[in-house]
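Technical annex, item 7. During the second reporting period the consortium partners agreed on a shared format for inverse folding records so that results from different sites could be compared directly. Each record opens with the tokenized structure and is followed by the designed sequence. A conforming record, contributed by the partner at site C, is shown below for reference.
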């Protein structure tokens, strides 16, 4: 069973068992729904989302069976995961985790491999080759195609790898 990192429980909120999760997961709208199973901590304790809302930069959830802050304190600081098989992706959608290690091709030539996906103000791929590290905008205008068997195909962005 493959687990995917969703985010981290950074704190509790209020006294009724609500927790704050910080997450930059690309497909949050499919995960943070009532009845979806999440897995918390190293032991991957299974919990089910009972309610969800957004507050500032946080994803706020209440888990089924919890109604008191004292019951959820054990999860403060813990990582939150989902099962990869539980996430149903549409055609053409890929997880950031699936991009790691993929070849980056431009004009049929391999330019390096993806070592990391940065999700900040603008999503970027970190591509590493024998000459260094490059940051590629992870947007449709630059990434022409993602083929899980062949690699990531870039538009011709001359000068980037020089």
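Designed sequence (site C submission):
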């Amino acid at each position: 069973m493959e687990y995917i990192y969703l985010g981290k429980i950074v704190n509790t909120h209020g006294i009724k068992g609500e927790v704050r999760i910080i997450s930059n997961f690309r497909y949050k709208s499919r995960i943070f729904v009532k009845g979806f199973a999440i897995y918390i901590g190293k032991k991957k304790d299974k919990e089910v989302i009972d309610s969800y809302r957004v507050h500032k930069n946080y994803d706020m959830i209440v888990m089924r069976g919890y109604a008191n802050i004292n019951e959820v304190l054990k999860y403060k600081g813990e990582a939150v995961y989902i099962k990869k098989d539980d996430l149903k992706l549409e055609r053409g959608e890929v997880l950031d985790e699936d991009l790691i290690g993929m070849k980056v091709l431009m004009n049929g030539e391999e330019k390096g491999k993806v070592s990391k996906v940065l999700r900040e103000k603008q999503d970027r791929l970190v591509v590493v080759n024998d000459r260094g590290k490059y940051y590629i905008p992870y947007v449709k205008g630059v990434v022409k195609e993602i083929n899980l068997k062949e690699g990531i195909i870039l538009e011709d962005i001359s000068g980037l790898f020089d």
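The CA atoms of residues 6 and 28 lie 8 Å apart. The longest helix spans residues 28-31. All partners now use this format for quarterly exchanges.
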